[in-house]
Write a structure and sequence with these properties.
It is a single chain. This protein is α/β, with parallel strands linked by helices. The chain has one domain. The chain is built from nine helices and seven strands, in the order βββββαβααααβαααα. The longest helix has 17 residues. The mean pLDDT is 93.
Length: 214
């Protein structure tokens, strides 16, 4: 089966996602932008935490406009997307069945309209970046989130900001162990597919420029 089919249309404040070559229905992802600062938030890349930082920063920074984004280790982001779906659908099916359902969508099975918003969490980060239409001054790594925010705050000459970690998945130990078992199984059994699916994301992540100044 082929990779999930989607098309992204960019506008001033959001991206519009179309799936299955169906241009009559779509879902939206809004990013954080005003005349001085854009934080281009990607789902499953500390998006909620960065929204709070944007609110803080946009009230203080009035300098030359800059564009910033954050990327995450591609496998960790993929696991986080699957984990969120397992949490949201807990009790409707087994962890294995939920993972396999979304994996089929990734591999090309038609995405139901009700799952459009779910699937934007799986869209590769590289497709978000490429479709944004923005030129980025900084692309940081989520794994260095507080260090990146510290640098950015110094660069923008605004007050220090302590990042608030959000959206932690409240799994029991047993649930987490079952998720890790099933995700590892699904990933290893389909490694060739995931290697191709995450190829551009791995390149993007390896070349994120935060290592040059943090």
């Amino acid at each position: 089966m082929n990779k999930m089919e989607f098309y992204i249309k960019s506008s001033e404040q959001h991206l519009e996602f179309f799936f299955n070559a169906n241009f009559t229905q779509s879902t939206f992802h809004t990013f954080h932008r005003h005349k001085h600062l854009t934080i281009f938030n990607i789902p499953k890349c500390a998006s909620t935490s960065l929204a709070k930082y944007f609110d803080h920063t946009s009230n203080h920074y009035k300098g030359t406009p800059i564009n910033v984004s954050f990327v995450r280790n591609p496998i960790e982001r993929l696991a986080s997307a699957f984990k969120m779906k397992c949490k949201n659908e807990y009790g409707t099916a087994s962890v294995r069945e939920i993972i396999e359902k979304y994996q089929r969508f990734l591999m090309g099975e038609t995405v139901p309209r009700a799952h459009y918003n779910d699937m934007i969490h799986f869209v590769p980060q590289s497709d978000f970046i490429r479709s944004s239409g923005l030129e980025f001054d900084f692309v940081f790594k989520v794994e260095n989130l507080q260090e990146s925010i510290d640098f950015l705050s110094r660069f923008l000459k605004i007050d220090h900001y302590k990042i608030e970690q959000s959206n932690k998945t409240n799994f029991t130990k047993a649930d987490l162990e079952e998720f890790q078992k099933q995700f590892t199984r699904a990933y290893s059994e389909n490694k060739d597919f995931y290697d191709r699916f995450l190829l551009a994301d791995n390149y993007l992540y390896q070349n994120a420029n935060d290592k040059n100044y943090l």
